[in-house]
Amino acid sequence: QVHLEQSGGGLVQPGGSLRLSCTASGTNVTSYHMAWYRQAPGQERELVAATPGDGIGAIYVEDSVKGRFTISRDYAKNAVYLQMNNLKPEDTAVYYCEARFAFNDFWGQGTPVTVSS
């Protein structure tokens, strides 16, 4: 079983930055595909960025956040991060981290991000 603990969301003005953290416990997630999703009010959950297990394969970043968001991993800390720069009001959503390996899929509790002046 994998437990994912998220932190780092909050309220920020347009143009500001936030870094989301997602730390796994219960197992080493080095081989897990890790991703960040978001869900805005009234909308479906969408994939924002993803990084492959064991560093094998390409990192994915959704077009609307390319150049602004960066996904990274710290294998020693069993964690994945989402650095979000130049935030826009349309980035407002609840952000979720995901860890996936084979048929096992785990989710963090979600952390709200609000971009507003």
How would you describe what is shown here?
0% of the residues lie in helices and 52% in strands. The protein is globular. The strands form two sheets. Strands 2, 4, 5, 6, 9, 10 and 11 form a seven-stranded mixed β-sheet that branches. It has a four-stranded antiparallel β-sheet with strand order 1-3-8-7, with no helix packed on it. The model has no long low-confidence stretch (mean pLDDT 96). It starts with a strand and ends with a strand.
Short structural summary:
With 117 residues, this protein is mainly β. It contains no helices and 11 strands.
Count of DSSP H/I helices: 0
The sequence of SSEs as H and E is EEEEEEEEEEE
Provide mean pLDDT, rounded: 96
Helix/strand structural class: mainly beta
- Characterize the biggest β-sheet: 7 strands, mixed
Number of strands: 11
Q: Percent range for helical residues? A: under 10%
Please state the overall shape, judged from the principal axes of the Cα atoms. Answer: globular
Q: Ends: how far apart?
A: 40 Å
**Quaternary structure type:** single chain
The percent range for strand residues is: over 45%
Taking pLDDT < 50 over at least 5 consecutive residues as the criterion, the unreliable ranges are none
Integer-rounded radius of gyration: 14 Å
